[in-house]
């Protein structure tokens, strides 16, 4: 049965509250301030803190290097600013960070002329205290052409996957490599994009 009402007042939902409170004022992350510091990448950590990485020009004595700073769950600095890359000749640039299931974090970047005659993708894993977990390692397998601009993501299963721009004989494409929870590669480096005409960039 359909009932008729003379009340023409439609219910009105309350307006959403988009207000928020800043946890603290804007603050400077880098301590070293000579030359430019660029390309920051940030990730939240399992304990409620966070980690920030960036590239710093000239800080390691030879062009760009990768540096980082940890913060605790109150936003306070945890430890000192530190260098992430071990190989320091020429440029190490474009860092990308992700958190790991064990509470640590992983950083990837591209490095110039470290193993071959162009840019390649390297990484370093850290434990929850910010200490290196193993040694710096090369991620890309293809080395004939340049590999640039990595992007990294942690996986629910505990591993991680890294993607990047790979320059082949014709143009640029998107490539990737997966790793398990222990840091071992899973399968081979693989191409992600199926359309290969012209360039595909910025994964």
Note down, in words, how this protein is organized.
- The structure is a single chain.
- It is built from no helices and 12 strands.
- The protein has strands at about 35-45, 50-55, 65-70, 75-85, 90-100, 105-110, 120-125, 135-140, 145-155, 160-165, 170-180, 185-190.
- A hairpin with a 5-residue loop joins strand 9 and strand 10 (about 160-165).
- The protein is globular, with a radius of gyration of 22 Å.
- The relative contact order is 0.11.
- Residues about 1-5 have low confidence and may be disordered.
Q: Fraction of residues in helices?
A: under 10%
The number of distinct helices, counting runs of at least 4 residues, comes to 0
In terms of DSSP E residues, the strand content is 35-45%
Strand order of the largest sheet: 1-2-3-4
Mean pLDDT, to the nearest integer, reads 86
List how many beta strands DSSP finds.
12
> Can you summarize the main beta sheet?
4 strands, antiparallel
- Rough outline: globular
Low-confidence stretches: 1-5
Q: How far is the N terminus from the C terminus?
A: 57 Å
- Succession of helices and strands: EEEEEEEEEEEE
The computed structural class is mainly beta
Radius of gyration: 22 Å
């Amino acid at each position: 049965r359909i009932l008729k009402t003379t009340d023409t007042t439609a219910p009105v939902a309350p307006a959403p509250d988009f207000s928020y409170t800043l946890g603290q004022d804007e603050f400077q992350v880098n301590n070293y301030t000579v030359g430019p510091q660029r390309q920051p990448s940030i990730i939240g950590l399992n304990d409620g803190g966070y980690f920030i990485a960036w590239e710093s020009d000239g800080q390691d004595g030879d062009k760009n290097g990768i540096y980082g700073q940890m913060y605790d769950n109150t936003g306070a600095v945890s430890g000192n600013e530190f260098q992430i890359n071990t190989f320091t000749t020429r440029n190490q640039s474009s860092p990308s960070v992700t958190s790991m299931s064990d509470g640590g974090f992983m950083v990837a970047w591209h490095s110039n002329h470290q193993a071959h005659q162009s840019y390649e993708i390297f990484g370093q894993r850290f434990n929850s205290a910010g200490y290196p977990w193993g040694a710096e390692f090369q991620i890309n397998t293809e080395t004939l052409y340049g590999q640039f601009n990595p992007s990294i993501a942690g996986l629910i299963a505990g591993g991680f996957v890294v993607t990047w721009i790979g320059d082949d004989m014709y143009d640029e494409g998107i490539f990737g490599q997966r790793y398990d929870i222990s840091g071992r590669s899973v399968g081979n480096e693989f191409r992600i994009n199926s359309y290969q005409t012209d360039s595909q960039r910025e994964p």
